[in-house]
Write a structure and sequence with these properties.
This protein has helices spanning about 5-10, 15-25, 40-55, 65-80, 95-105, 120-130, 150-155, 180-190, 215, 245-255, 265-275, 280-300, 325-335, 360-375, and strands at about 30, 90, 110-115, 135-140, 160-165, 195-200, 220-225, 240, 315, 340, 340, 355. By secondary structure, the protein is an alpha/beta fold. The protein folds into two domains: about 5-40 and about 280-375, Aspartate Aminotransferase, domain 1; about 40-275, Aspartate Aminotransferase, domain 2 (3-Layer(aba) Sandwich), CATH 3.40.640. Strands 2-8-7-6-5-3-4 form a seven-stranded mixed beta sheet, sandwiched between helices. Strands 9-12-11 form a three-stranded antiparallel beta sheet. The protein has a two-stranded parallel ribbon with strand order 1-10. The protein is globular. About 45% of the residues are buried. Pyridoxal-5'-phosphate (PLP) binds near residues 120, 166 and 200.
Length: about 375
């Protein structure tokens, strides 16, 4: 079969491979999962049903329905004091599409994109599809997995076009300090590079309030989504926020790839943003209890684990086991039927760690940790 060169540069996901293997086994507990175990809140589903019943079944504006973009704009005004025009918001098929469009619209073959290591794997694959080079910048355990401005600075060359950040961070659960937001923004401004901030875990935080890069730097593209905040992974609603200079070329591609998002899903997303946010609070409180439990159990087992301030992941250091990340993941799957994700699935610097998700029912989490303790 003739496959385009750009496809050959996309590496199959190690996470998927592991899930494939696990799906053929019985009695497996997955701590690998990257999506909320909660159902979408009922009032959000009801809004989609109402939209369907009232005939909201047609194409919408390519940017997304106006009242949804107004709701997104209000959110940024209320939470960060930012004035975002509705034309600076593009509704996308999850944050995935928003990130993909940013790469496709703004990066050329041969350009360099700075990507933290470890990082969510889509960034390096989006770069590879274009023939752009991903330049990895380590984020380290000793810095609680913050992205350090000086480390970014060292990686900038004449070819650097964009920096990727994702905080609260998948896979480590790390967050940034206020001065990191400032420092990183200044470096991007000095070098005139675009900053793509993937803020999808913005609301899954514990005693911590994230900043918004766009407050510090105009050339920020925010990618965000309803997937994690409102337990809406299957609805496929996300968005990009950026100046027209960036949104316009992204829209040009989006209109031929997707035209627009599913109309009832946009209505539901609007309801999610405009209604009271207690549903989010309830889910985050539940994640917090699980987080405290998981991190204590892992540390008690001798797997050093930093208490994450955001996301539903923690990132234990497994070097004391004497196994590599992949060996330990395989071993846990074979010996006790528990899925964890090898840290190196997110980059070479993730070696020596595994990602453990607590977006799973607490009883299953307890059982999984008992099993791990027995074989470690
Ligand atoms: C960091 C990060 N960005 C983007 C995505 C894509 O999310 P979605 O397309 O569902 O909004 C994910 C999903 O796991 C993620 O973890």
């Amino acid at each position: 079969m003739m496959v385009a060169k750009r496809v050959r540069s996309v590496v199959p996901s190690k996470i998927r491979e592991l899930f494939e293997k696990a799906s053929k086994m019985e009695d497996v507990i997955s701590l690998g999962i990257g999506e909320p175990d909660f159902d979408t809140p009922q009032f959000i589903k009801d809004a989609a049903v109402r939209a369907l019943k009232s005939g909201e079944t047609k194409y919408t504006s390519n940017l997304g329905i106006l009242k949804l973009r107004e709701a997104v704009s209000e959110k940024y005004k209320k939470e960060y004091g930012l004035e975002i025009d509705t034309n600076e918001i593009l509704m996308t098929i999850g944050a995935y599409e928003a990130v993909y469009l940013a790469f496709q619209a703004l990066i050329d073959e041969g350009d360099e994109v700075i990507v933290p290591d470890p990082a969510f794997p889509c960034y390096i694959n989006d770069a590879a599809m274009i023939g752009a080079k991903s330049v990895r910048v380590p984020i380290k355990e000793e810095n609680e997995f913050r992205l350090i401005p000086e480390d970014v600075n060292e990686k900038i060359t004449r070819k650097t076009k964009m920096l990727i950040t994702c905080y609260p961070n998948n896979p480590t659960g790390g967050v940034l300090k206020k001065e990191d937001y400032k420092g990183i923004s200044e470096i991007c401004e000095d070098s005139n590079i675009i900053l793509l901030s993937d803020d999808i875990y913005e609301k899954i935080v514990y005693d911590y309030k994230p900043q918004c890069f766009k407050k510090y730097y105009d050339k920020t593209i925010i990618t965000n989504s309803f997937s994690k905040t409102y337990a809406m992974t299957g609805w496929r609603v996300g968005f990009a926020v950026a100046e027209r200079e960036y949104i316009t070329p992204m829209l040009r591609i989006h209109q031929y790839v997707a035209a627009c998002l599913n109309t009832p899903a946009q209505e539901a997303a609007c309801e999610a943003l405009r209604s009271d946010q207690r549903c989010v609070e309830r889910m985050v409180n539940e994640y917090r209890k699980r987080r405290d439990y998981v991190v204590k159990r892992l540390n008690d087992m001798g797997l050093k684990t930093i208490l994450p301030k955001g996301t539903f992941y923690c990132y234990p250091n497994i070097k004391s086991t004497g196994m590599s990340s992949s060996q330990l993941s395989e071993y846990l799957l074979e010996k006790c039927r528990v899925v964890v994700i090898p840290g190196n699935a997110f980059g070479d610097n993730g070696e020596g760690f595994v990602r453990v998700s607590f977006a799973t029912d607490i009883e299953k989490i307890k059982e999984a940790l008992d099993r791990i303790e027995n074989v470690i």
